[in-house]
Design goal:
Layout lengths: L3 H14 L9 H15 L18 H4 L13 H12 L3 H4 L4 E5 L2 E3 L5 E5 L4 H6 L5 H14 L7 E4 L3 E3 L13 H18 L3 E5 L1 H8 L12 E4 L2 E6 L2 H7 L2 H17 L6 H5 L6
Helix pairs in contact: 1-8, 4-8, 7-10
Length: 282
Amino acid sequence: MNRPVDAVIEFLQSQQAHGKTHVLLDNEARDGLRELFIRARTPVEARPDIPSDSSAPRTISQVIPQVVELVIEGEDKSTKLASIKRQVANWAPALSLGSLRETMVFAAGNPEAKIMLIGEAPGYHEEKEGQPFMGPAGEKLSDILKAMGITREEVYITYLVKFRPATPKQSTNNRNPSLAEILACMPILRAEISVINPAVIIALGDSAVEGLLNVKGAIGGALSQWHEFSGIPTRATYHPVHLLKTGSNEVKRLLWEDMLAVMEKIGMPISDKQRGFFLPKP
């Protein structure tokens, strides 16, 4: 069973192991922690969201609803993922933050996949379709997989955060998830990884890399090398939308080198043509 507080503790322990004594929090994370502190100190009978009837149950999950457990049920991977998905639809640790939209975008792909791709959070197109990596960025991801010789149906695609981060007067505009939102959803991702047990993880984009690997800022320093998350070899690379924004051949080349490294890691055949993608023409 996984709790958001476990993810927080693990994150802080990893920072301490790297010699860090302080952790910077953004405004949303500070507000979330402040709210938890206030809620924990407020008597239950003074809480408007908890029934005043003395016969009503008053558990820790009522005082701090962010602390809940996720239970994996089922005999095979598909049923286990289905049990996770059912719980995620009303995942209180995330939805109680008040900063996420309510439509869940869970995951897609093959439960037996060797490759697990993790993005940051769904956006406009994904929320509309109810599937991860839709729209132009999704088409670009499909092109990348096709160049590798595989399809979306052969990999497992998911997000750090399963709900679209909200903004004022939101239409098609998107934003990256906050630290508080990532931590709230981390137990879900860990449960998915424990079920899928992929041979390799690919982290797509700054927020995904930061959330998984504690790499701050631009991901340039995390590229072209192997990391580890939950005991799984993990490769950090650019989000497909970054290719659409820059159109840079250098970015395309760096991303493709990461894909080649993934292919080599799991023993996929690589042709001379694939190795020659984005190399200077003689």
